[in-house]
Write a structure and sequence with these properties.
By secondary structure, the chain is α+β, with helices and mostly antiparallel strands. It is about 50% helix and about 10% strand. Helix 12 packs parallel to helix 15. It is globular and about 55 Å long.
Length: about 400
């Protein structure tokens, strides 16, 4: 199957040294070829920006959901993914994204900016700035509370939402354990039940929140476009996707970026915060891998990908490509332009990117204002996963 142009790689994405710091490994692979066949997972991997961008934008590549098996065991997990926009292609993706984006764009994000500032102040007011865990006591609770309020979920559920989300996303790793699988199934079931109850309550008693908007999108099926609205399963799946994606990126980008900044003694000025956040997104990407499946024969990075084969864009590798980013392995807080792929590209570009950017700018700015001499007081504790890269604990102080 492989010619001279079709190189194979034995890169172990589960190896401790790769998980700890994948970027030197990506650099080695990139120098040999932009795309390589990965024997261990029977799929193609991209190592440069151009090829990853092709994977994200090429319409002959799709997100093709395949139910986890045995189906009976994994049905709670499968149900949430089978019915969400991230795992579908047009026309289903178009319908789902249009309805969800329409609800998401109704002024909710800017309406929340003052609330983000208030929450940031409250959370920092509850910690001892001389020494605290900035992930567990600040970066985690803030976006969970924000996305819960946006959707209309009780903030009392926020700790449980985070626990459910962390259990579910472990299934995205290369080799989840049976214990991880059980936890993900249980979390998916509990998560769906909670959202379904709220959605049904909003049918009878609408509020000014996103779940109400999603329910209304379902009720208004058969619009002028002739497209169907959201089913109850799609409302639940969309809400869970927004809850998970709406805070996972913010938590992990904040932790990864802050560790990089403090390690290099970088403290951006207020007017530099937006550029600095983009560099946080690029330098140590929270999402490292995004997979698509060929629906027809296609060439990516000069390599022929056959119909039915899968190819994964390694986003962290793309974001360190020296052909696109000068001094790619350095954290430059005022880097501009910064065409990173941390939020993806094409039709699956992250719907929550504006919310994540706003939260990151506000939370980082508030932290640096309150603690301008912030520094690491202990070795950060990484979560130890490849696909979703982040820290479970980062202790800092002034």
């Amino acid at each position: 199957m492989h010619s001279v142009l079709m190189r194979s790689t034995s890169l172990d994405l589960t190896a401790a040294d790769v998980i700890a710091d994948p970027y030197p490994h990506f650099s080695t692979e990139r120098r040999q070829s932009p795309v390589a066949w990965h024997e261990a997972s029977s799929r193609w991997l991209t190592f440069d920006h151009a090829s990853a961008n092709e994977v994200l934008r090429e319409r002959r590549l799709g997100r093709i959901w395949r139910d986890k098996e045995p189906v009976e065991r994994f049905e709670p997990f499968n149900l949430l993914h089978r019915n969400q926009m991230m795992e579908n292609e047009p026309p289903d993706h178009t319908r789902l994204r249009r309805l969800v984006a329409g609800a998401f764009a109704r002024g909710h994000i800017e309406r929340l900016r003052p609330r983000v500032r208030t929450l940031a102040g409250q959370l920092l007011g509850e910690v001892d700035l001389a020494g605290f865990d900035v992930v567990r006591q600040y970066a985690e609770p803030l976006p969970v509370l924000v996305i819960a309020e946006l959707l209309g979920v009780s903030t009392e559920l926020a700790p449980q939402l985070r626990a459910w989300s962390q259990a579910i996303v472990k299934m995205y790793e290369a080799q989840p354990s049976p214990q991880d699988e059980d936890a993900a199934i249980g979390a998916a079931q509990a998560f769906a039940t909670a959202i379904r109850e709220i959605a049904r309550e909003r049918v009878e008693h609408p509020r000014d929140d996103l779940i109400t908007d999603l329910v209304c999108a379902g009720a208004s099926s058969g619009s002028a476009t002739g497209s169907a609205g959201l089913s109850e399963d799609e409302v639940v799946a969309s809400a869970v996707l927004l809850l998970n994606a709406g805070h996972e990126a913010s938590v992990n980008v904040f932790g990864n970026g802050l560790v990089s900044m403090l390690a290099h003694e970088i403290s951006p000025r207020p007017e530099e915060l937006s550029l600095c956040v983009e560099e946080m997104l690029r330098f140590d990407s929270a999402l490292q891998l995004f997979e698509r499946t060929a629906t027809d024969d296609v060439r990516i990075g000069g390599v022929p990908v056959q119909k039915g084969q899968t190819i994964a864009a390694l986003l962290g590798a793309a974001n360190r490509d020296p052909a696109v980013f000068d001094d790619a392995d350095s954290f430059l807080p005022t880097r501009d332009p910064n065409p990173h792929l941390a939020f993806g590209a094409g039709i699956h570009f992250c719907l929550g990117a504006p919310l994540a950017r706003m939260e990151l700018v506000e939370s980082l700015g508030h932290l640096l204002l309150r603690a301008p001499k912030l520094h690491l007081v202990d070795e950060p504790r990484p979560r130890g996963t490849f696909v979703l890269r982040g820290h479970t604990s980062v202790r800092v102080g002034v």
